[in-house]
Amino acid sequence: MKCRTLGNSGLKVFSVGLGCMGLSQSYPPFPDKKEAIAFLRRAVEMGEKFFDTSELYGIYANEELVGEALEPVWDEVVIATKFGWDIQDGKCLGLDSRPATIRKAVEGSLRRLRTDHIDLYYQHRVDPKVPIEEVAGTMEELVREGKILHWGLSEPGVETVRRADRVFHVTAVQSEYSLWYREPERELLPTLEELGIGFVPFSPLGKGFLTGTVSKEQTFGEGDIRRTIPRFNDPENLAKNQALAEVVRDFAKEHCLSPAQIALAWLLHQKPWIVPIPGTKTEDRLRENMSAAYVEVPDEDWDKLEESVSGIQICGERYAPAMLKMTGQ
């Protein structure tokens, strides 16, 4: 089995994880509970060992689903979940990473996940009202208490990562990264390498765009997160960005692979401590994604791909303005 270690933490996971969000939110239609549980258990049978969820996904529903599905195999898998929200009466009212809120959140996640510890616990978004040193200190306490084993940050700025790591070592950072969003290469990846922190890219397939299945005429249904994103909801952006999808498709065809396999294998090629977490709801797509861990492409061919994409300008923001404001803090 192809495994990787996140930074210098010693936390070993399968090279391509499974993002579980789409089973409960953002990418309808959603499978019914029985179907979703069967899918997650089948994923374990196929060799998947790294699952990503959050208290926010479906407001607790995704954690409950993952907990019920994976309770029988807890000793075989690594589960990551996230905290950092003010959730009241089933609604998210904003950010909240105060220590008391974190402690309430971890107890809820432990209960819903049906476990006595969380393998990897991320701050979902940096809360500007709470010093990151205070958050890191709370994480250290939770590790000492055995409630979490490792902690991480999602979509932080580089200085936040450094400040947090000085207090208590960060195991992993989770942010968007793919062939169509490469901003992490500028400052974040060098910082993580310096500090010995693993990197877990979400949306490694560009929210489906890099699979080549999103046409320039594509529209998105109610509840689909892509309806809110300028790269998708602006027809001009969607049309211009097809150039990247076409290059990935052609490169994949030359190597008798799928675009998804190439997009994920490209990420794995960047650093040995990168572990992408594509989401899917079907066994076929999961098998395709997991197989990227075994893809071998000569370095000179990756260089050719780099040349081909280097001149392509990606049009449109990756998030709606409100979501963009919560990143890079």
Walkthrough of the structure:
The protein has 13 helices and 11 strands. The protein has 329 residues and is an alpha/beta fold. The strands form 3 sheets. A 7-stranded parallel beta sheet has the order 3-4-5-8-9-10-11, with helices on one face. Strand 6 and strand 7 form a beta hairpin. Helix 1 crosses helix 2, helix 4 packs across helix 5 and helix 5 runs parallel beside helix 6. It is globular, with a radius of gyration of 19 Å. The relative contact order is 0.14.
What's the β-strand tally?
11
Overall pLDDT confidence: 97
Structural class: alpha/beta
Outline: globular
Q: Give the termini separation.
A: 36 Å
Low-pLDDT stretches? none
How many H/I helices?
13
Q: How much helicity do the residues have?
A: 25-40%
Order of helices and strands: EEEHEHEEEHEHEHEHEHHHHHHH
Instruction: Please state roughly what percent of the residues sit in beta strands, choosing from under 5%, 5-15%, 15-25%, 25-35%, 35-45% or over 45%.
Output: 5-15%
Largest sheet: 7 strands, parallel
Order of strands across the biggest sheet? 3-4-5-8-9-10-11
Radius of gyration, whole Å: 19 Å
Keyphrases for this structure?
two-stranded antiparallel ribbon, 329 residues, globular, 11 strands, alpha/beta, single chain, 39% helix
Quick summary:
This protein has 329 residues and is α/β, with parallel strands linked by helices. It is 39% helix and 15% strand.
Question: Which SSEs are present, and which pair or pack?
Answer:
Blueprint: E1 3-5, E2 12-14, E3 18-19, H1 33-45, E4 50-52, H2 61-70, E5 78-83, E6 85-88, E7 91-95, H3 99-113, E8 118-123, H4 132-144, E9 148-154, H5 158-167, E10 172-176, H6 188-195, E11 198-202, H7 230-233, H8 235-240, H9 242-254, H10 259-270, H11 283-291, H12 299-310, H13 321-324
Parallel strand pairs: 3-4, 4-5, 5-8, 8-9, 9-10, 10-11
Antiparallel strand pairs: 1-2, 6-7
